[in-house]
Every structure is written in C-alpha cells, then in structure tokens.
Amino acid sequence: MGEHDEEDQQDPSASVAIPASGSPGLTSGMFVYLETPRLLLRRFTTDDVDALVALDADPAVMRYINGGHPTSYEEIAGDTLPAFLAYYERGASWGFWAAIEKASGQFLGWFHLRPHRGDPDDEPELGYRLLASSWGRGYASEGSLALIDKAFAELGAQRVYAQTMAVNTASRRVMEKAGLRFVRAFVADWPVRIDGDEHGDVEYGLTRQEWQSAGTVRSRG
Q1: Between β-strands 159-165 and 181-186, what pairing exists: parallel, antiparallel or unpaired?
Q2: H or E element: which one contains 106?
Q3: Residue 36, Cβ neighbours under 10 Å: how many?
Q4: 188: pLDDT confidence band, cut at 50, 70 and 90?
Q5: What is the rounded CA–CA span in Å between residue 44 and residue 35?
Q6: Mind giving me the DSSP string for 171-203?
Q7: Is the Cβ–Cβ distance between 141 and 178 less than 8 Å?
C-alpha cells in the first residue's frame, strides 16, 4: 500500500502539540494527527531521515514495493521526506504520518491518507509501511481503522480506498479487517518488475454510505 500529494485549510481534527518524552519517536512540540489505544500518528520532521532509511533498508518491508531493494539515503533526504513535509504546508487534513508506539516511543513506520494525484479531493487513498518487527501485532489494522473513521467523521471523505498486489495476502487481510471491501482486480503499470506482479493488483474501498450503514463511528480509544 501506497505513496504522495494535496489540500488546504485547518480541519476540525486540529493537530495538537505535545511535549517530547525523550523517546526517539517523540519529538519536542510534535503535532499529533491521530491517537489510537497503542499508536500516535504524528507529523514527520527533518530529524526522521535515519528512521525512514532504516525502514526502507529491510528487504521484507520493500518486498511488494520494489522487489526488496533499499531506498538510498540521498533519495529519502532529497525526495521522500521533503514530499512528506510538503503536505503540511497545504493543510492539516491529508498527508503522511509517522507511526509511534505509545508504550515505547519507538518509530514503527508510517501511514498515509491522501487523495492520489488526479483523484477527487474527497476520495483519499489509505496506505502504510511498517517495520517488520511490528508485523502480526495488529498495528496496521488499528491505524487503518482509525484513519478511515477520521476520513469520514471529520474530513468529509466520500470514499476511502487502498490498493496492493494480488499476492500480498497480509495487506489484503488488513484492508478487510479495516472494513474495506473488495472492489476490483486490475493490472498496474509497475516501473520495476516484481515477482508476483503477473497476478495483477487489487483495490478495496468503502464509501461514506457504506461506512454509515455499518453503524456508528468505531471507537478509536
């Protein structure tokens, strides 16, 4: 699941500045976008370069992104992180958010919620990339559920969707646990051939009406 672009105006979710605790993932005066029982999703800062490099250095993490190749320090420092930071200049609604484990203050990876280039402003794409050491603990589902609820309850989204390779069964399970529904299978134009991409890609989504019909806003803790 995903990557970059969009929007303006302060939203009713008003990011909150809180003091740092000294933990590596908690920075002084950081802006918290969202809190769940176990996670804080905060804005990235220029101090997060090394954490992003370490995240992308794991072949398992990059398996379904580019076949398992690390992203260079130069690319992250000069392209990836500046693109993340640029979202915050356009508003508080959409962007990429560092995922921090509340109990330890550890950087676990990131989530994004943002309209993809060319999509309507009220149809954000959900995505995430987490350290392999955090897999299997429900963090991806927990963060995704909270972001979907926020998108509909606070940010005026009409539809939320996510995409992955058809063979990425772990991400497909996360999408299903987060309440997204299978929409379609398709073939994406990948710039790099990845083992398994011959099986194509899948999209899961949820409309505002479907979210409302599922019941009241799910608890975020």
Answers
A1: unpaired
A2: none
A3: 19
A4: confident
A5: 15
A6: HHHHHHHTT-EEEEEE----SS--TTGGG-EEE
A7: yes
Nearest CA to 139 out of 126, 129, 149 is that of: 129
Which tokens in the block code for residue 167? 């063979």
Task: Please classify residue 185 by burial: count the beta carbons closer than 10 Å to its beta carbon, then call 0-12 exposed, 13-18 middle and 19+ buried.
Answer: exposed
Predicted confidence at residue 193, as pLDDT, reads: 83
Residue 63: both structure tokens together:
């398996």
Sheet containing 159-165: give its strands across: 16-18, 30-35, 39-43, 95-101, 107-114, 125-130, 159-165, 201-207, 181-186
- Residue 159: the pLDDT is 98
Q: Helices in the chain by DSSP H: which ranges?
A: 49-56, 59-66, 73-75, 81-89, 139-153, 169-177, 208-213
Q: Can you list the domains of the chain with their CATH numbers?
A: 16-213 (3.40.630.30)
Degrees, nearest 5: CA angle 176-177-183: 15
Mean pLDDT of the chain: 87
Q: Give the DSSP H/E element, type plus range, for residue 111.
A: strand 107-114
Give the Cα separation of 92 and 12 in Å (integer): 9
Amino acid at 81: L
Nearest to 134 by CA among 30, 58, 218, 210: 58
- DSSP conformation class of 68: S
Q: Coil, strand or helix: which one is 46?
A: helix
- Of residues 170 and 216, which shows the higher confidence score? 170
